[in-house]
Design goal:
2 helices, mainly alpha, 68 residues, single chain
């Protein structure tokens, strides 16, 4: 192996190590982002749905409950 071949092999090893480290960091970041999105979705789902009030529908509902 020539010095040039050795230098290329070392460079490739460094590139591979850097690529692996970057991939690990992105994977960790993506997991954190996914957890944050899941938490936000759970918080959103926990909020009760509020419909626009229709006084006639509300009155019918109250009357129906009173009749039952």
């Amino acid at each position: 192996m020539t010095d040039e071949d050795a230098a290329r092999a070392i460079s490739r090893a460094h590139d591979d190590a850097n690529t692996a480290a970057a991939f690990a960091a992105l994977t960790k970041r993506n997991a954190a982002l996914a957890a944050a999105v899941e938490a936000a979705m759970a918080a959103y789902d926990a909020v009760p749905i509020v419909r626009a009030s229709d006084p006639r529908a509300d009155a019918r509902e109250i009357i129906a409950k009173g009749a039952a």
